[in-house]
Amino acid sequence: MGVAPSWKILVTGVVVSLVFVIDNAAGGNVNNVSAARELAAADQLSEPAAAPASAAADPVVLPPQRDALGVINTTGTPGRTVALTFDDGPSPVYTPQVLDVLDRHGITATFCVVGTAAQAQPQVIEDIVNGGHALCDHTISHDLKLSTRDEQRVRAEIEGTLDSIHAAVPEIEVPFFRAPGGNFSAAVNTVAASYDQAPLGWSVDPKDWREPGAHRIYAAVMAGVTPGSIVLLHDGGGDQSDTVAALGEIISALHDAGYEFVIPKT
């Protein structure tokens, strides 16, 4: 029995490699797609990988919506859903840009506003509401030690933000409360509940406030999202140009992966 010529061995190796690649692509899931997008995003955000055709049909089991403190950590909606939330605005620079991206894609999000910023930007608060988005109370001063404050101080922080919002849009509902830094406590949540506000947490945090670059924000979100995820992003509190740059690609990629954008259930 003779030895095959070297060119035949080379061709066979190439064919086997191609079959391996095609087989992996056909059997890939959303996590594999996310990883591919992360690599593509490192060079160019405008080239996300295609989502598997079966994504929307996959069975979905959601984790519990609330944690031991009653903080909402998932959308509470069955199926492939995801919620985008934006903290520390409104910003006169970045919030309008975020609203433009959301409007172009026809989706709604939740804006966790700081009271002092709302006082300074009443028109932007009005624009958020007119866009059909939900509002969340993020305290008047963004006090990271809110859970250590007495009830009077906590009430002042929450009510002050409500007053700022209602000065711009009277009687609008503010169904959510988000403690700065995620520092919730049973006592703080009880005060928020007295204003009919549900504590709103998150399950995906790309730490965009660190300004890591648009491709890193994109990659972190795509790697973290699963059905029911709540994504924490920022439209205020600093330079959020990276978040704005990544946002459209995040939305498109999740859409391609079969996700629906929702407001979390209370």
Brief synopsis:
With 266 residues, this protein is an alpha/beta fold. The protein has helices at 6-26, 30-43, 94-105, 115-120, 122-130, 151-168, 186-193, 214-224, 241-256, and strands spanning 81-89, 110-113, 134-137, 176-177, 198-199, 229-234, 260-261.
Please, could you describe this protein's structure?
The chain is an alpha/beta fold. It has a single domain, classed as Glycoside hydrolase/deacetylase (TIM Barrel). It has nine helices and seven strands; from the N terminus they run ααβαβααβαβαβαβαβ. Strands 1, 2, 3, 4, 5, 6 and 7 form a seven-stranded parallel sheet that branches. Helix 3 links the parallel strand 1 and strand 2. Helix 5 packs across helix 6. The longest helix has 21 residues.
Helical fraction = 40-55%
CATH architecture level-2 label: Alpha-Beta Barrel
Q: How would you describe the shape?
A: globular
CATH top level class name = Alpha Beta
User: H/E order of the elements?
Assistant: HHEHEHHEHEHEHEHE
Radius of gyration: 22 Å
Instruction: Please state the average pLDDT score.
Output: 84
Q: How many distinct helices? A: 9
Q: What is the strand content?
A: 5-15%
The structural class is alpha/beta
CATH topology: TIM Barrel
Poorly predicted runs are: 1-44, 46-57
In total, the number of domains comes to: 1
What is the straight-line distance between the termini? 74 Å
What is the total tally of β strands?
7
- The CATH superfamily turns out to be Glycoside hydrolase/deacetylase
